[in-house]
Amino acid sequence: MTLPKLVVVLGTTACGKSGLGVELALRFGGEIVSADSRQVYRGLDLGTGKITPAEMKGVAHHMLDVVEPGRPYSVAEFQQGAYRAIDGIMCRGKTPFLVGGTGLYLRAVTEGFVFSPGGADPALRAQLEEKSTQQLYALYREQTGKTLSCGEESNRHRLIRALEKRAAGVEEPPAPRPRYRCLLLGVSYPRQTVCARIDQRLERRLDEGMVEEVAALRAAGVSDAFLEGLGLEYRYILWYLTGRLSSAEELKDELGRAIKRFAKRQVMWFKRDRDVLWLDMEGDPLGQAAQAVEEFLAC
Predict the structure, then answer these.
(1) Do the Cβ atoms of 69 and 226 come closer than 8 Å?
(2) In this structure, are 201 and 238 located in the same domain?
(3) Which pTM value belongs to this model?
(4) N or C, which end of the chain has less CB nearby within 10 Å?
(5) Which residues contact 141 (CB under 8 A, 6 or more apart)?
(6) How many Cβ atoms sit within 10 Å of the Cβ of residue 17?
(7) Contact 186, 11 (CB under 8 A)
């Protein structure tokens, strides 16, 4: 049976995935499903670079603001929510676009990961939650003999779930079952350009109130442990608010370097997939992408 078609826009942070997704959706009568592990949380806006209503240009977006901050949210939960959103878009006779930069979320949908059933052990979960992310990763390596990369080693929720599965005797995941035939469009720039774009965006988001956003989350009761686990903007701004970083200038420098390291890991992650059509971002990426989408939908 022929699988339904899904267009995917993926790539490096600060490289224009959201804007490209909107333009393609406008051109092809589509709706967008976000694939970002932090944008699922309400109130995490500037720190995640969440698209604004004005930037959406009337295009419907899904899987944004679906859970309150502080609650663990798994890849399996995202996958099921994304499946519902994509299938709903198709039922409305529109084209679904999956847009984002969280590699594991993207792969869960595009490759059709099959997640093992079974709930968490509350006692074990409590023990694991008390550990730092570094301690969790050390425990994971000790128990499995495996190393992780491309940001997976810092994904607190994934590490906890992997340790829970191991404790429950779940070793190897079932074979994936793809639900869609996917066109993968990659968005990135040369390293020097990516770094410049990261610096410009960081400056703008700090001016728009990113520090105040994190302070407001803390005031609303979101725990420091949760913010720390989110990494990048939320971790470094937390360090600034709690005195670990002594000045706004140090915050900007340290955070900028961390985001650039993250972008480099993203490139390494996505470059492993040979099926990605990498767009010429310094040429006519929209025209190139539109032609690829048109041919994909026609065949």
Answers:
(1) yes
(2) yes
(3) 0.85
(4) N
(5) 147
(6) 25
(7) yes
